[in-house]
Predict the structure.
Amino acid sequence: MTKTVQCPQCGQPVPWQDDQKWKPFCSERCKLIDLGDWAAENHRIAGKPAISPENESNDFH
């Protein structure tokens, strides 16, 4: 029996098998929507900032 997961973008069932090209997404469209959300910073991983705002400088020397 093939395991099925839900597409993280739209919730459609996705078979978890080697020939499923876009897993865990159901399609390229859902994969690209998710990628766009990460690029737009709509998704974030919790944690401390790498650079604290008070030490941040616009001077790159």
Observations:
- The mean pLDDT is 86.
- The first strand starts at residue 4 and ends at 6.
